[in-house]
Fold this sequence. Notes:
Largest interface: A-B, 55 and 60 residues
Number of domains of chain A: 1
Structural class of chain B: alpha+beta
CATH class of chain A: Alpha Beta
CATH topology of chain A: Alpha-Beta Plaits
Helix content of chain A: under 10%
Strand content of chain A: 15-25%
Largest sheet of chain A: 2 strands, antiparallel
Number of helices of chain A: 2
Strand order of the largest sheet of chain A: 1-4
Shape of chain A: globular
CATH superfamily of the largest domain in chain B: FAD/NAD(P)-binding domain
CATH architecture of chain A: 2-Layer Sandwich
Strand content of chain B: 5-15%
CATH architecture of the largest domain in chain B: 3-Layer(bba) Sandwich
Distance between the termini of chain A: 34 Å
CATH topology of the largest domain in chain B: FAD/NAD(P)-binding domain
Number of strands of chain A: 6
Order of helices and strands of chain A: EHEEHEEE
Largest sheet of chain B: 7 strands, mixed
Oligomer: heterodimer
Radius of gyration of chain A: 17 Å
Amino acid sequence: MSQEKLIAIPNITTPNNPVIFNQDICNGCNHCVEVCQIDVYIPHPQKGKPPIILHPDECWYCGCCVNDCPRPGAITFNWPLQQRGYWKKKATGEVHQI
Amino acid sequence: MSTWHDYLKEQGHAPDWPYPIRFDQEQEIDADVLVIGGGIAGCWAAISAARQGLNVVLVEKGDTIRSGAGGPGCDHWCNVPANPLSNVNPDEWAQHMADRPYCNGIGIQIQCREDYDTLLEMEQMGGKIRDTEDEYVGAEGRDAKTKFMISPRYTQIHSYFSGGKAITLKSNPDRKLNNVVIRVWGTTFKPALKKECKRLGVKIFDRVMVTSLLTEKGVQSARVVGATGFNNRTGEFMLFKSKSAVLATAGAGSIWMISTELGGYCNMMPRTTTGDGTVMAWRAGAALTNMESTGIMRIATGYKHKWYTGGGDASYENVPIVDANGKRLPYPIQGWVDWGAMLPAPGVEDKIREGILKGEYALPFYGDFPAMSEVERRATWKLMLGEEATTKIIIDTFNKAGYDPGQDLLQSYKFIEGVSLPQWREAGYGGGLLVDWDLKTTLDGLYAAGTQMFNPEDHSYAAATGRYAGRKAAAYARQVGESKISREQVAREKARVYAPVKGTGGLEWKELHAGIARAMQYYASEFKTESLFKMGLDALRKIEEESVPLLFAIDPHKLMRSLEDTSLLTYAQIILQASLARKASSFPLNFQRIDYPTLDPPEWQKFLTIKLENGKVKTGELPLAFWGNMKNQYEAHNKDYDGVYRGKR
């Protein structure tokens, strides 16, 4: 750890991760890049790899990229922490969060 | 891992811009009908114009496949009184809907007359509008013969008014359900519309932001003969020449607020909703109306929990609401049970608040999905929420996390997340382009549809008016000859558009947006006076003169965001100019002036119009219901209308 070279980068935009790609399922078809209303993504320079999330701060969580992905499981929505909804089991009163 | 920072860490360098850079290149495209904006209204306009056999060009800032407010989906086709299950007369229903002050009677009449035809054409194209798989047999409102599913919205009580009264019309005197809203599977719509555009030979230019309209000889208020734009991935300049044009872009969604750090701009609209079309029409000399009308911002992602696009809460519609101890709250159920009421009667919300403070009701509240009947629960969760715009992904996320509507209470965020602050407002759906019975603007060659018009409505309104405007724009294009664009006008716009890429530092688009928003919060929010409006105009002029020249954009995407800011800036200036012109307060316009406190005095119950003439702001006025007798006018203007498309498929 101490020997690792660090690069100087600014603070990360938050939230920074509107979706999580599963590299094993995603084949880099870039359909999500096309359906995104606002160009959150750019294609990865290497063919076959999941796109790069370039503008996470512009995502408005419409969900089209996940809804329309031709390979189910390749993209999972990752709601920002403050956006994760709650529910309660009616029978037990136990509270859950997405 | 796929973030930009991951890439940087892995590769040791940032990724290259993935698209070719063509800032210095230009493409010229000829069209009979040019459609600007590829959302619901734009796609329908392009399809209906192309069905007349014309050369149609459709230009869209995102990608037509899912762009626009209706891109992700839509769960109900509103105001479709001409459907076979309806219990009301379409003209009578239209008249009733147009009783709301400052609405758009022209658009409403078109919607009520042609929405059912539009819906059937949506089905022809592959959109799902019926319960063909018999998933919801037994659900209230489902018709066994047609397999249409009537929506529980607006069934007997007018949804738009708080604690509304039952609607009694001549055609529906015995207080039967109106049956004017049909449930649809709207996630299937947008890809089907794009496919039909392609099948009809519409030339689609995705990822192109249009920034200006071209007028004959470059003269303000002259006939519209084209438009300019640029590709927001490559930067290439685009020049469109047209015989007629339909404006179908979005309203202005975020003039009063921006906070990117909390995600999604904290507004119910995506960033792309920046009023570009309204502003380019304004610069070309078109008249706008209702621009002084604003609303309280329906803030969403970031500041509030997101359901719908922040405007509502899924623990509300069709669902009984209970407190943390399971005690039923006096909210209407909003669906079949309370006859379509969408808001509680006046005073109910205050009583609940008192009850909370006294310990009578325990927070948080919950939507009691398990209390619903199985089929109604499924229709609400899977069909209504599963097909409506941005809620599909929310439903899917809940399902995957293990939420079971049959057993689990869905948390409501009422009260615990607070309300919007009064200085956070939105231009909303009040102002827009003035149109006539052809949906023609005040400029020859320029038509408007959907959100582009003053006081627009919803998804099916955008569809019906888009389809109508496309038809009218096509008829006009057939009559007129070629016309010459002004190269000088093009050169001026080119210089304006590319100025931010020439800069190397200065002001970035987010900061500019925040500066505009703050000026509007200070000078055009809850407290309205002549002197505050003038200070607002001064503040915006200072931004225009001193800050806009400092804008810089490092790539075509950021250039788009920068130019959107300039749209927002002009839009804000128009709002202030229109606000100065209305020297009275108005309840329906949400316009309360301290210096003119009387609400809606009779002499001010009128539309105010505003436009640029020889570069100067000019205001005018029109009486409410200036459109005349809606039924007669519609019929006089549509003698040749032949209903549902029967062309080659």
